[in-house]
Design goal:
Number of helices: 6
Strand content: 15-25%
Number of domains: 1
CATH topology: L,D-transpeptidase catalytic domain-like
Structural class: alpha+beta
Helix content: 25-40%
């Protein structure tokens, strides 16, 4: 009898240890993993908030779960809560835990001046759209040059992106010289425009089925996004 009791106690010890370590399931493990990435990549030092990063990862996981992504190892975050004079675009390699790019990104002409404040999904609005997008294939535009198509995947929020011809492209108003001259970054017609010298390497890195998250603490978006619920 004593041998049986001892054997049962021996079997229970690992389970007790796992519980005491907080191993309550996959959600806790995922949270720990993303927390490690945020810390290891030192994103706090770049100005990207942990809460924004966590929202981006939440949406990426949901898009990946429904088969929307071809490459879930790369995520791009445009943090439109920051001044346009800050390097508020982040391209992160989640698999290798590296910050690949951290640079400027423009918002739409009617979205705001230095700060992004107003957003739209409507054609002709000249405003940026918020939310999650999936990158598609590169194209070459007559005015924009080498550019990247993006698909807005949030209905009523950014799903008119292709019809509006919202693309990622380089622009000469997305430079430090422009900021020095005008006191702020230039503005696009709604596209997340990039510095000319970085547009191609960024496009080559994020093309073909990666996640792009354009963030702002806009209550209408945050309460209406199905991917963040």
């Amino acid at each position: 009898m004593r041998k049986i009791i001892f054997y049962l106690i021996f079997l229970l010890i690992p389970a007790v240890n796992n519980f005491s370590r907080g191993g309550s399931g996959p959600d806790e493990a995922d949270k720990s993993l993303t927390g490690d990435i945020y810390t290891m990549v030192r994103l706090a030092e770049t100005g990207l908030g942990r809460d924004i990063f966590d929202l981006a990862i939440k949406g990426l996981k949901r898009l990946n779960a429904i088969g929307k992504l071809q490459n879930s190892s790369i995520i791009t975050i445009a943090d439109y809560s920051q001044s346009s004079n800050r390097k508020r675009l982040y391209v992160i390699d989640l698999k290798n835990r590296k910050l690949l790019f951290n640079t400027y990104v423009a918002h739409g002409r009617n979205t705001g001046t230095e700060f992004a404040k107003s957003f739209s999904n409507d054609a002709g609005s000249l405003k940026s759209s918020l939310g999650f997008f999936v990158t598609e294939h590169p194209v070459t535009g007559s005015h924009t040059g080498y550019s990247l198509m993006i698909d807005g995947v949030e209905k009523g929020i950014n799903d008119h992106a292709e019809k509006r011809e919202i693309i990622i492209h380089g622009a000469d108003y997305v430079t430090e010289n422009f900021i020095k001259k005008y006191g702020r970054l230039g503005r696009s017609q709604g596209c997340p425009a990039l510095p000319p010298e970085l547009s191609k390497p960024i496009i080559e890195t994020i093309k073909e089925g990666t996640c792009l998250f354009i963030y702002n603490p806009d209550n209408r978006y945050l309460s209406g996004s199905a991917l963040l619920k």
